[in-house]
From TrEMBL:
Gene3D superfamilies: Classic Zinc Finger
Protein name: C2H2-type domain-containing protein
Keyword list, A-Z: Cytoplasm, Metal-binding, Nucleus, Ribosome biogenesis, Zinc, Zinc-finger
PROSITE patterns noted in UniProt: ZINC_FINGER_C2H2_1
């Protein structure tokens, strides 16, 4: 009897909660990505045709980028696998729908923004 717990090694291999959430804070917010997509659509440009500058710090020298998910990839094949993923398809569906909430919307909902009293009809 006694000794180490046989399940101890399994716990060490799990991803910690902190590392799983770390990438969430590095991404652009939904409203910033939506604004970029609208800007490209107004200019009549495709999101894929955009020429990217070479950056040695980014994966794949910054050449393989998904605008909807705000992610860089190491190669074209990894980017193509990402395009077929469920996460990317959900993100495209969210970005093609109505505009996401902005900080102004959040402030108005919390009662911190300017009140909307409607149109002034007549001044006496």
């Amino acid at each position: 009897m006694g000794g180490k717990c046989p399940h101890r090694k399994v716990k060490k291999r799990r991803l910690s909660h902190k590392t799983a959430r770390r990438g969430k804070f590095l991404l652009k917010a939904d409203d910033a990505v939506y604004d970029e997509l609208v800007k490209l659509a107004d200019q009549g440009k495709d999101a894929e045709a955009k020429e990217l500058p070479v950056d040695e710090d980014l994966p794949g020298m910054g050449q393989f980028y998904c605008l909807h998910c705000d992610r860089y990839f190491a190669s074209e094949s990894v980017k193509d696998d990402h395009y077929r993923s469920k996460r990317h398809k959900k993100r495209v569906k969210v970005m093609s729908g109505p505009a996401p909430h902005t900080q102004l919307d959040a402030e108005l909902a919390a009662g911190m923004g300017k009140p909307d009293n409607g149109l002034k009809l007549m001044s006496m």
